[in-house]
Design goal:
Oligomer: heterodimer
Strand content of chain A: 5-15%
Distance between the termini of chain B: 85 Å
Structural class of chain B: alpha/beta
Strand order of the largest sheet of chain B: 12-11-15-13-14
Number of helices of chain B: 25
Helix content of chain B: 25-40%
Strand order of the largest sheet of chain A: 2-1-5-3-4
Helix content of chain A: 10-25%
Shape of chain A: globular
Radius of gyration of chain A: 19 Å
Distance between the termini of chain A: 24 Å
Shape of chain B: globular
Radius of gyration of chain B: 27 Å
Number of strands of chain A: 7
Largest sheet of chain B: 5 strands, mixed
């Protein structure tokens, strides 16, 4: 069983687990847009990057594709990781401002400005639908076509394929079209509508959310507000301290 | 065709070859590399053969086409052996004079000799030409002496001797150890120690594979192409030695389909080596089996990245895969794979022939051996140069390259292909090795070297490379796909004079993000041209943004053309070439340019004899 160190915690995991699995096993949240437990990892959205020490140098690597190996030293929420995620989410918001999932992640990671013009694309090319169709639905009716900025999810020759059974699994798993955000200022790239929306909290606890998930009241006050979020010692390790 | 069954037979055959070849027999070798062929080397060869026949020298003089000599600027070039007389800019009409000179007892044809531009002196021998004098041609030195389609030529210059040495008693550990001790680092760009990589791969269970990466996609780079076309056996020999050291039975050469000549020469070389028993089953009677397959790539830049290349050989879409696992752990068909560049493989026989100490003595402390650069751009001597690591940029540009044409000033040197960085003229004394270049924000890359003079706009250069990389990104991972697109958008905006000062911080943030989080090296290095130009030429960015000026007068939206009333003689030449009908004026009278109609193509400036067309930058002044 490989034993590795995540945020200072020594842990042993099963063979074949990725660092993402290991971190989630420890209860450390790592955001992703292109990962699903039933599908092969892709490393496409890069949101799950973690800081990894290897041969004395530190690198950001995607946790979903990184096998949990003996002797790995991983930081899931270092300053560098947080900055990368914030900048990534800024790009994501500009690409697909109407996605609730992206807006929520942006709020959570403090991406509260967007310096790009909004694009309103309908796809972030996470590839979940392609993998879902191929690996779970055994259809393989859709795939990627093109390269670079021309890359898109497509059908063979852009025509309806006989292989598509119209099961809807691709729609079900899409992180962008699953739920459209209809915030009060839907046209601006970063609306923070969810955070400004006041709801009544049903039950209040000190350091946990109430039974509403997500509870906007809890997010607005309390420890879950991004700017007053408690600097969890487990998560935030100053970059200089790693030995 | 002999099939050589042992190392002794190989040496005996080599001795027989040497005995049958008369070293004093005149031989005319013409460079048939891509550059010289484009300049007419084929016609020169035909003319030489015809004239040799006419002069009745057919039995006494050989005419041979060889690989690239590197000095493409002066092509077609040829050498007359055994004297080694070097002729440049040869035309087919010169053939008669050349053949006559041989008949007359080897008096060099004066007008074809190279003249040193500094002293005006004629130079007779190749190694005395300043372009070659400072080079150390370990890999390319034999290009001008052998016919790439003739294995005997390669054997005659000591080819396959290293293989013989390896198979006559060395163990695989010793071979890997020698490569390690030589300090050879991968010549494909990243510079990973080759011996260490081989050691990692050998630890993993067989079957293992090896690959020669000949997918050279950098604009302006043609080193791998020249070596494949000019000396394919040196690469094969390196691969066979690698196969022995790594215990590999199957190897691949992944070469671009755009290099048909390279593919042809490689196929011929493989066939010849198989016929000689140097490749295939039971190599030189040692029991070692090794086959080489040639795979043609369809020309995607990203397929030069090793994991993408492996996917492409497997028949899948050439998209990079996350590492680890590294190819040395899990590569082709999920088996351990060593993948090295053309120049790396070609260096292996040299190391084993001359010994690792000899090789390690060339170069700097951490970068050993020689590196091949393709020197292009605003430089007098365009071509391929092979120099020891640690040579300074000054020696490279002014001594080998012959300086900047037109008396202009050097501005920057872009090293390492599209994702390398721009090094400013102020760092001219920088020693070129892996680590110094990385420190300066650039990288060794595959060895492309683009020289830029003062008429280059650095913002425009950054925009150009970003446009290239945006097209060539595979689009698989988000930061590379969107990052290159956003960067190109911002740079285009700045070039058009619509930039904001905040854009610079945004570019730096984006560059940082791409470097840190992209999946493969293409995305990780894509921001280099932008980051280095921001670091060294920030003023130029600010001039575009704050003053709406392009100091180099390149960016079309920020320049305008006007006619100097003092010099204009009203000849009307500019009116004729102006496609936008923007120039007004009658014959013999002063002409004017209507800035609103002008497309800024610059055609008027080119044709104006009295040099009355001026280009300025900044806001167009109101007509009074």
């Amino acid at each position: 069983m490989p034993s590795l160190k995540i945020n200072g915690i020594e842990t042993e995991v099963e063979h074949g687990m990725s660092v993402l699995d290991a971190a989630r096993f420890l209860g450390l949240p790592i955001p992703t847009l292109c990962h699903d437990d039933g599908l092969t990892p892709a490393g496409a959205c890069r949101l799950c990057v973690v800081e990894v020490e290897r041969n004395g140098t530190r690198k950001l690597l995607s946790a979903c594709t990184l096998p949990a190996e003996d002797g790995l030293v991983v930081w899931t929420h270092s300053e560098r990781v947080e900055r990368a995620r914030r900048l990534l989410l800024e790009l994501y918001v500009a690409t697909c401002p109407s996605s609730k999932r992206i807006q929520d992640l942006a709020s959570r990671y403090g991406a509260n400005i967007c310096r790009y013009d909004a694009e309103h694309e309908i796809c972030i090319q996470c590839g979940l639908c392609v993998r879902m169709c191929e690996q779970q639905m055994m259809a393989g009716a859709i795939g990627f076509a093109g390269r670079g900025s021309n890359r898109r999810v497509s059908r063979p020759f852009d025509m309806t394929s006989d292989r598509c059974r119209q099961c809807g699994a691709c729609l079900y798993i899409c992180p962008v079209c699953e739920l459209r955000c209809a915030g009060p200022q839907a046209d601006t790239t970063l609306c923070s509508g969810c955070l400004n929306f006041a709801t009544v909290c049903l039950q209040s606890y000190d350091h946990a959310m109430c039974s509403l998930d997500p509870c906007h009241a809890c997010e607005l006050s309390g420890p879950f507000r991004p700017d007053v979020r408690v600097k969890n010692e487990l998560l935030k390790i100053p970059t200089g301290e790693l030995k | 065709m002999p099939r050589l069954a042992s190392v002794n037979e190989l040496e005996a055959y080599r001795a027989r070859l040497a005995a049958t070849r008369d070293p004093t027999r005149p031989c005319l070798t013409v460079c048939a590399g891509s550059g010289c062929t484009a300049a007419g080397a084929g016609d020169v060869l035909t003319a030489l053969r015809k004239n040799v026949e006419k002069a009745g020298l057919k039995d006494g003089v050989d005419v041979k086409s060889t690989g690239c000599h590197g000095f493409c600027e002066r092509g077609p070039i040829m050498i007359v052996w055994p004297e080694g007389t070097f002729y440049n800019k040869v035309a087919s009409s010169d053939a008669r004079a050349i053949v006559a000179s041989i008949a007359d007892g080897h008096v060099p044809v004066e007008k074809l000799l190279y003249r040193d531009p500094a002293s005006g002196q004629a130079v007779v021998r190749e190694d005395e030409v300043p372009f070659y004098a400072r080079q150390r041609r370990v890999l390319f030195g034999n290009n001008g002496r052998i016919d790439p389609k003739n294995i005997d030529d390669y054997l005659n210059v000591g080819g396959y001797a290293a293989l013989g040495k390896v198979l006559s008693g060395m163990t695989w550990e010793q071979v890997i150890d020698q490569v390690k001790r030589s300090g050879l680092r991968g010549r494909g760009g990243a510079g990973f120690p080759t011996g260490v990589k081989w050691g990692f791969c050998r630890q993993n269970p067989a079957p293992r594979y090896l690959i020669c990466n000949a997918d050279e996609g950098d604009p302006g780079a043609f080193m791998d192409r020249s070596l494949l076309e000019g000396n394919p056996h040196s690469i094969l020999e390196g691969m066979i030695i690698g196969a022995f050291a790594l215990g590999v039975e199957e190897g691949y050469v992944y070469v671009r389909a755009e290099y048909p000549l390279a593919v042809e020469h490689l196929r011929v070389a493989i066939e010849q080596a198989e016929n000689y028993g140097l490749l295939g089953d039971n190599i030189l009677g040692s029991g070692q089996r090794f086959r080489v397959h040639v795979v043609k790539g369809a020309g995607a830049f990203v397929c030069g990245e090793e994991t993408a290349l492996i996917r492409s050989i497997e028949g899948k879409v050439g998209e990079p895969q996350p590492r680890p696992p590294y190819p040395a752990q899990r590569g082709l068909w999920n088996r351990p794979t060593v993948i090295n560049n053309v120049k790396t493989w070609a260096s292996v026989p040299v190391i084993l022939n001359r010994g690792p100490e000899w090789y390690a003595a060339i170069g700097t402390e951490k970068s050993k051996g020689t590196m091949v650069f393709s020197l292009v751009g605003k430089i007098n001597n365009t071509g391929l140069v092979e120099v020891p690591m640690g040579i300074t940029l000054r020696e490279m540009i002014y001594e080998i390259g012959g300086g900047i044409p037109g008396g202009k000033e050097l501005k920057a040197i872009q090293i390492g292909g599209p994702s390398g960085g721009c090094i400013p003229a102020s760092l001219i004394d920088l020693a070129i090795d892996y680590d110094e270049l990385t420190k300066a924000g650039s990288m060794m890359g595959s060895g492309g070297m683009v020289v830029m003079d003062e008429s280059t706009c650095m913002v425009d250069v950054a925009r150009y490379f970003m446009e290239f990389l945006e097209d060539e990104s595979c689009g698989q991972c988000f930061p590379c796909r969107k990052g290159t697109q956003r960067m190109r958008e911002i740079l285009t905006r700045i070039c058009a004079g619509h930039g904001k000062e905040e854009d610079l911080a945004l570019l730096e943030d984006l560059g940082w993000l791409m470097r840190q989080t992209s999946l493969c090296a293409l995305g990780q290095t894509a921001a280099n041209p932008v980051l280095t130009t921001l670091r060294y030429f920030r003023d130029e960015y600010l001039a575009h943004i704050r003053d709406q000026q392009c100091p180099a007068k390149v960016c079309k939206q920020l320049i305008y053309y006007e006619i100097d009333p003092v010099f204009c003689d009203g000849c009307g030449a500019c009116v004729k070439v102006c496609a936008g009908e923007a120039i007004l004026g009658e014959k013999k009278k002063l002409h004017t340019i209507d800035a609103a109609k002008c497309t800024r193509c610059g055609a008027c400036m080119e044709v104006c004899q009295p040099k009355a067309v001026l280009v300025s930058t900044g806001a167009i002044p109101c007509p009074v």
